[in-house]
């Protein structure tokens, strides 16, 4: 056949599916798209192949299997597709949110692996089920194509016990595996590797603090290229305040509110995950752009949300500096990290005590790689746009081979 096989990257949400077709030889994105409203009225696909017109196709899709069939149809289409035959897809890489303690690296999917992913559903009841459905659908449709699972938790499996254990009765760890897992691992790993390239430091000698700031936000502390600590916990709720998530709060608030408001665990979980965060503080939106606009117009609660977010990021970064003997760089990534000039400026200002200085002119950048620290800053500050799909494609290619 000659040439390298393309990798199809699949990221299944509960009612959505994002995909990219990537040629691992030159890392070209041949096609990408999004299927929305799976199993709901108005389901559709937005599909775009390299150098071709963007397509939006509305079509009833009852489940993820329908969605994946439609993705393949679009990829094969003579007019707006990217390949001539399904055999041009060499492997499929799936983003799986929770690998528990079972997986410290991406892995070829076997029956054993599926059992382990299913076992971890308890730990990620919202995310793992659609991931499992996506894998099964691909296995049915593309029978002989290797499927690889890439876990959001894998990169963080190198954390020492002092950073992943919770100070609650030990039996709960033994019974339910309650511990810190961390998420966004694929992003933290990609940004770590890319930072090593930019700074020309060997990856296993790099100490970096990665700030993945977006609608979901997490920070990781990386020592010699390996994760030492991260801000998300058993679930993605711990750590920073986020779009609609509370982040870390006094745990007694939970039981207090459940008693006062007569809330079920499900309702309480809903409040903390979907009704809190900067949405709750600002009263305006979970979108940082809307909140920045509100703050500019003098909305005090929008300003409060931004101030609290920046302050919390700086505090976690500062705490991670105590875990490293030196810091090569602090790196900003994801939607807010890559695009919010003011957030980066305020966070850097709070870290001034460490001899960290931002260069305002260099910081005037959105969505592209840049060193944004002043020349005399004790620690380099960088913007590195994340690319989870590319990281998944690299892992999938490596493992499928």
How are the SSEs placed, and which strands pair?
Elements: E1 6-12, E2 17-23, E3 28-36, E4 44-49, E5 55-58, H1 64-76, E6 89-96, E7 107-108, H2 111-119, H3 128-141, E8 147-151, H4 161-164, H5 170-176, H6 185-199, E9 208-212, E10 218-223, E11 226-230, H7 252-261, H8 265-274, H9 277-282, H10 288-296, H11 300-321, E12 329-333, H12 334-339, H13 341-350, E13 370-371, E14 380-383, H14 388-400
Parallel strand pairs: 1-6, 6-8, 9-12, 12-14
Antiparallel strand pairs: 1-2, 2-3, 3-4, 4-5, 7-8, 9-10, 10-11, 13-14
Helix pairs in contact: 1-3, 6-14, 10-11, 11-13
Structure description:
The protein is of the alpha/beta class and 401 residues long. The chain folds into two domains: 6-151, ATPase, nucleotide binding domain (Nucleotidyltransferase, domain 5, 2-Layer Sandwich); 201-388, 2-Layer Sandwich (Nucleotidyltransferase, domain 5), CATH 3.30.420. The chain is built from 14 helices and 14 strands. The chain has helices spanning 64-76, 111-119, 128-141, 161-164, 170-176, 185-199, 252-261, 265-274, 277-282, 288-296, 300-321, 334-339, 341-350, 388-400; strands at residues 6-12, 17-23, 28-36, 44-49, 55-58, 89-96, 107-108, 147-151, 208-212, 218-223, 226-230, 329-333, 370-371, 380-383. The strands form two sheets. The protein has an eight-stranded mixed β-sheet with strand order 5-4-3-2-1-6-8-7, with helices on both faces. Strands 11-10-9-12-14-13 form a six-stranded mixed β-sheet, sandwiched between helices. Helix 6 (185-199) crosses helix 14 (388-400). The relative contact order is 0.11. Its EC number is 2.7.2.1.
